[in-house]
């Protein structure tokens, strides 16, 4: 097959032919999500206290360094997305970014997870700088490519499902490894770093290789528009469908982050079961691995936005059910946590798949390729929600009188209970309301792909 014939076949089928999108190849393609997700939990949960306790850095310094890192993400995520949209090489748009950034990610992981005995603020800041560059340079092009493997409505849901399952497995491993370290040498932060960093180093090279070789990437044929900041911002903020998806995902991630940031306090102080503080979180993630295939089957029947609404309403019901939990009803908490795990990620999964459909609509209307840019701001919405949850929920709880360093009054524990249950419930309800009635369903997307194919056929040179 000639290059032009390959391009035409690739475009007209909306990406890779469906017969080639087998479970084995989807698992290979999703492999790079393993080291990426495996790094996310340590960065958010374990690294700050380890660098404070075991390496003597002040909490203020660590907090400032990690805050600057998140602000840096706000710049690099959309920049990488926009630039990868404009990359032209014989290897494709996304592959060069994933390959080069994977190397940066792996090398910087060595310095971050295997530090010297004495760690200065400068060492941590510089290491995180390169770590975040590598992480973003892999994650954003990978997410964009995942939306381009297939242009078919339900295939995109399958692709996102495999990534969600791989991510859940990585998060489970990242939760287990520090617990294993505590069993071997309790309180040894360096051992925890070694095990978590080992997971990244063992998986990063083979996973990048598997992802890069899983599917052919369509060599772009359009001439790239030069990067202009004003036009790039306009492409995001003028797209109302995209903003609707971003707002819905922000609400989903906010609900999850509120629950994650309060679950240890809730189980330890309200339930009086500190022995289950980490175990309950792990229990939820075990069942979260089963959630992806369940919601995939629902999505194939209902469509993406209806399934997202259904998943969010399940989450609302589960969190409202937490209002019935008392310190004497631990079995009810376990049951609700199991349901929480089975509903975990349902909204994120469907919304991620919708982003590529929105990018197709944008391309039809403007002729511009914005898939990488749209996935970059989608990634930012989740990160912003995590920071917002911690910045609001914890100060609110303190203002209401809760203090983990003292014996709390029944009133303070009651406020903890209410925020832990109602905060996520309200956020999930907002997410469902925002995505309800989303107009870009399977029928509308099929029409968009058909018109894009007609445009490509008309513009393609005759053989």
Structure overview:
The chain has helices spanning 3-12, 23-29, 33-53, 59-86, 95-113, 121-146, 153-184, 189-214, 229-237, 240-270, 277-302, 304-321, 330-343, 346-366, 371-399, 410-435, 442-459. The protein is an all-alpha fold. The protein has 2 domains: 22-217, Growth Hormone, Chain: A (Up-down Bundle); 237-456, MFS general substrate transporter like domains (Growth Hormone, Chain: A, Up-down Bundle), CATH 1.20.1250.20. The longest helix is centred in the middle third of the chain and has 32 residues, at 153-184. It is globular, with a radius of gyration of 22 Å. The chain starts with a helix and ends with a helix. Residues 1-13 have low confidence and may be disordered.
Task: Summarize the SSE layout with pairings.
Layout: H1 3-12, H2 23-29, H3 33-53, H4 59-86, H5 95-113, H6 121-146, H7 153-184, H8 189-214, H9 229-237, H10 240-270, H11 277-302, H12 304-321, H13 330-343, H14 346-366, H15 371-399, H16 410-435, H17 442-459
Helix pairs in contact: 2-8, 3-4, 3-7, 3-8, 4-6, 4-15, 5-6, 5-8, 6-15, 7-8, 7-11, 7-14, 10-11, 10-14, 10-15, 10-16, 11-12, 11-13, 12-13, 12-14, 12-16, 14-15, 14-17
Using brief descriptors, characterize the structure shown.
single chain; 463 residues; mainly alpha; Growth Hormone, Chain: A; 2 domains; 17 helices; 78% helix; disordered N terminus
